[in-house]
Task: structure prediction
Amino acid sequence: MVREGYAAFNRGEVEAAFKDFAPEFECDMSRAVGINVDRAIYDLEQFRHLFDQYVGSWESFQLGADEFIDAGDHVVVPFTNRARGRYGIELQGRGTFVWTIRHGAIVRACLYQERDEALEAAGLRE
Result:
């Protein structure tokens, strides 16, 4: 489900990328560093708006999932996103999301700067 969401977005199918999100979805961006977003918790509508604004500010943007780590109700996704600005400058952003799935829907995403923190939050240790 999470893997397909990333793939759908990168194919340009934004609606399909969000199809498995629960209406009560929330995204915890309180640990965000180095990106122009409020460090807050967003509901689904707020997250979609934030996502659209952020992605729309780049000439091109690709979600990069480095791997998908199954942790029961959670999927840990270390990522390297790639973006190109208006003047051709290319940037990479790294972090790790922990996605939570319940009753067949994505109910939560939480951004971590460090992979180890994300794995521990998902009940895994390396």
Helices lie at 2-10, 14-17, 44-56, 115-121. The mean pLDDT is 92.
